[in-house]
Amino acid sequence: MELPKSLEKVSKILSRLPGLGPRQALRLSFYLLRQDKNYQKDFLESFNNFFTKIKLCQECSFPFETMNDNETLCSICRDKKRDHTLLCVVEKETDLLTIEKTNKYQGLYHILGRLINDVNSENSKTILLKLIKRIKENKPKIKEVILALSPTSEGNLTAYYLEKAIKNLKMDIKITKLARGIPQGGEIEFADSETLINALEGRK
Ligand SMILES: [Zn+2]
User: Fold this and answer.
1) How far apart are CA 143 and CA 42, in angstroms?
2) Could you tell me the distance, in angstroms and rounded to a whole number, from the CA of residue 75 to the centre of ligand 1?
3) Are 142 and 85 in contact (CB under 8 A)?
4) Which of 35, 91, 140, 187 sits at a 20 to 30 Å CA gap from 196?
5) Strand, helix or coil at 108?
């Protein structure tokens, strides 16, 4: 039998979410249909705001919301009290949040968005170029880059490529990595604060 077109469309969109297959997506669509009107209205409004009001920081890529159309930086990058010569490179937004939660890091961040598995792919080149451009143009000059990538094989490979590219700049920038403590193969996002503070303070 044929499903209503709009239902099929929603189901198809949901199935693109990570971890959701077509069958679960369809089940979710039926679930949403059964919810009361208030929930549906709220759902629609939230997603509308989410997709239209949030901007990504021009420097670090972290999402932020502002009434000022000309604002291009998130609150961290705008914060004059933070150390703008210290740059912590992370894979994703949730890694940034985990590090922020320690209250021990006062520098800036750079979110890669994804790890580099093939240095020759267009995606990887874009990621690398964006970071290098930022390091070159940052004022004040960046003194230290902390590669805070999860100690997985992809994370290590990414750190290797980033280190090589930053060294090639010959800008006399210290490159450090988090100290051991985060279990091999473990993810920064799930590290507890104490482990992360030790890893940050013992970085080398
Ligand atoms: Zn930012």
Assistant:
1) 46
2) 7
3) yes
4) 140
5) strand
Q: Which residue has the tokens 């901007």?
A: 55
| Largest Cα span, the chain | 66
Q: How far is the CA of 137 from the centre of ligand 1 (A)?
A: 15
C-alpha–C-alpha distance, residues 204 and 173, integer Å: 13
What's the pLDDT at 185? 66
Q: How far is the CA of 77 from the centre of ligand 1 (A)?
A: 4
Q: Determine the pLDDT at residue 15.
A: 96
DSSP state of 121: S
For residue 97, report the distance from its CA to the centre of ligand 1, in Å: 13
Task: Say how many Å lie between the CA of residue 197 and the centre of ligand 1.
Answer: 22
* 134 C-alpha to ligand 1 centroid (Å): 12
- pLDDT for residue 176: 96
Give the H/E segment covering residue 59.
Answer: none
Q: What pLDDT score was predicted for residue 179?
A: 79
- CA distance linking residue 45 with residue 191, whole number of Å: 34
| d(CA 111, ligand 1 centre) in Å | 9
Q: Are strands 144-147 and 83-90 parallel, antiparallel or unpaired?
A: parallel
In angstroms, what is the span from residue 66 Cα to ligand 1's centroid?
A: 13
| Euclidean distance between CA atoms 145 and 168, whole angstroms | 14
The rounded radius of gyration (Å) of the Cα atoms in the chain is 20
Ligand 1 centroid, distance to 190 Cα (angstroms): 22
In this prediction, the residues of the chain whose per-residue pLDDT falls under 70 are 183-185
